[in-house]
Design goal:
Layout lengths: L2 H25 L2 H21 L3 H20 L3 H21 L6 H10 L8 H31 E2 L3 H4 L8 E2 H29 L7 H9 L3 H7 L2
Helix pairs in contact: 1-2, 1-8, 2-3, 4-6, 5-6, 6-8
C-alpha cells in the first residue's frame, strides 16, 4: 500500500467532512448528511480498503446502501447530529485516560525527539502533562456542548425526534454554525498553544509547518502504539 497516497486521501476526506456536514445542516438535506457519514466510513476503512481487504469493501458496500436509504428517508440527519459529540468525546477520553500513566502529549514529544519519555526535561514533562489535561478538559467541554446541541436541534434533534419539545430550539443551521465554531475554537487553542510552546521551549521547531511535517513522519504504527 502506498503510504503517501493513503495520507493524501485521508487528509482530503477529513477536510471534506466538515464541509459536507455544514451543508447538510444548513440546508437540512439528508443527502448531504448521508455523504458526510459515508465520508467518515471511508476514513475509518481507508487503510483496509487500500489493502484490498474483502471485509472492508463488503462493509463499505453495506454502509453505502444503508446511508442511501437513510438519506432518501430523511433519517440521516439525526445520527449526523451525534457525530461531533462522539468524535470529540472519544478524543477527550483518549487524552484523559493516559493521565494515569504517561500523558498522551508527553508520548508525542518523546516520539518526536526519539527518546523515552523519562528522558525529557522536568520542565517539558510538566508542560506536556498540563497540556494533556488542558486538551482533555477542552475536548470534554466541546463534546458536552455538541451533545446539548444535538438534543435541542429541531426538527430532527434527539428530543424532537422522540416527541419531546426542547426547552430551547436550535435550528439545523444554528447547529451547523455552532459545530463549525467549536472546530475553530479547537484550532485556535492549538495555534495559541503552539505559539506559547515556541516561547517556552525555543529552538525545538523552526515553525508550525516544520512541527506538522515532523508529526506526519511518525507514521501510522506510532499513532497506533501511542493511543493504547
Amino acid at each position: 500500500m502506498n503510504e503517501r497516497l493513503a495520507t493524501i486521501l485521508r487528509v482530503a476526506l477529513v477536510l471534506a467532512y466538515p464541509v459536507l456536514a455544514h451543508v447538510a445542516g444548513s440546508l437540512h438535506d439528508g443527502r448531504y448528511a448521508s455523504l458526510a457519514l459515508a465520508d467518515l466510513a471511508l476514513i475509518a476503512l481507508l487503510r483496509p480498503l487500500l489493502q484490498g481487504r474483502a471485509w472492508a469493501w463488503t462493509s463499505l458496500g453495506v454502509t453505502c446502501v444503508t446511508l442511501s436509504w437513510l438519506g432518501q428517508s430523511g433519517l440521516a440527519l439525526e445520527p449526523l447530529l451525534l457525530v461531533p459529540a462522539a468524535i470529540v468525546g472519544g478524543a477527550a477520553w483518549m487524552f484523559g485516560r493516559t493521565l494515569r500513566g504517561v500523558p498522551l502529549i508527553t508520548r508525542m514529544v518523546a516520539g518526536l525527539d526519539g527518546i523515552p519519555a523519562a528522558q525529557l526535561s522536568p520542565a517539558l514533562l510538566r508542560y506536556t502533562r498540563n497540556l494533556t489535561v488542558s486538551w482533555a478538559v477542552l475536548l470534554s467541554a466541546v463534546a458536552l456542548v455538541n451533545l446539548l446541541l444535538a438534543l435541542l436541534a429541531v426538527p430532527d434533534g434527539l428530543l424532537a425526534s422522540n416527541g419531546i419539545s426542547p426547552p430551547v430550539a436550535v435550528s439545523h443551521r444554528q447547529w451547523s454554525w455552532a459545530t463549525a465554531l467549536n472546530l475553530a475554537l479547537m484550532i485556535g487553542f492549538f495555534l495559541v498553544e503552539f505559539a506559547v510552546r515556541q516561547r517556552r521551549f525555543p529552538g525545538r521547531y523552526r515553525n508550525l509547518w516544520d512541527f506538522l511535517r515532523r508529526i506526519s513522519r511518525l507514521g501510522p504504527a506510532f499513532w497506533r502504539d501511542i493511543a493504547r
